[in-house]
Amino acid sequence: MTPIMMKLMSDLTSCTKMTFMVEEEAIRRIDAKPGTKQYGALAVTCAVYGKVKKEFAVPRNAFIPPPHTTSAVITLTREEGLPAPEFTAFIEKCFRERRKKIVNAFPDIKDAVLSLGIKEDIRAEHITPSEYRDIFIKYKASML
């Protein structure tokens, strides 16, 4: 489910609302906080995309044969000012080596990180979605 959601958020830039049915485990990854094991590119991208809302749970017995997990329907509602479609690729690159310091995994980003007052020894898993958004905007501006 993650690759599909990431692709849709990246490619459908004019879409204002998306609805998905996901496993409960995916909801934990979508709603993960920085510094947790579940926190990754999906959590950051969804948070920057806009508002995520769990609409309702779908019990296992709603399917034949029943799966081993409960599902839920969620909606993502786009908010204004979402960064460019390249943001998704940027986030995925940052999390490829999540335990590495971000400036080592992505050397040309150091100036953007430092200009925002973020420590250069920070790792991808500890940067908040809003910090990622700001880093991306600064980084992209520096590439022009």
Helices and strands in order, then pairings?
Blueprint lengths: L1 H10 L5 E7 H7 L10 H9 E9 L12 E8 L7 H11 L5 H4 L4 H6 L13 H14 L2
Antiparallel strand pairs: 1-3, 2-3
Helix pairs in contact: 1-3, 1-4, 3-7
Summarize this, please?
With 144 residues, the protein is of the alpha+beta class. The protein is 42% helix and 17% strand.
Annotation keywords:
42% helix; alpha+beta; 144 residues; single chain; three-stranded antiparallel beta sheet
Protein model, in words:
This protein has 144 residues and is of the alpha+beta class. It has seven helices and three strands. The chain has helices at residues 2-11, 24-30, 41-49, 86-96, 102-105, 110-115, 129-142, and strands at residues 17-23, 50-58, 71-78. The longest helix has 14 residues, at 129-142. The termini are far apart. The model has no long low-confidence stretch (mean pLDDT 89).
Portion of residues within helices:
40-55%
Strand pairing plus helix content: what structural class? alpha+beta
The dominant shape is: elongated
Q: Biggest sheet, strands in spatial order?
A: 1-3-2
What is the string of SSEs from the N terminus onward? HEHHEEHHHH
Number of strands: 3
Kindly state the mean pLDDT as a whole number?
89
The unreliable regions are none
Oligomeric status: single chain
Radius of gyration: 16 Å
Q: Quick one: biggest sheet?
A: 3 strands, antiparallel
DSSP summary: helix tally:
7
Cα-to-Cα separation, first versus last residue? 34 Å
Q: How much beta, percentage-wise?
A: 15-25%
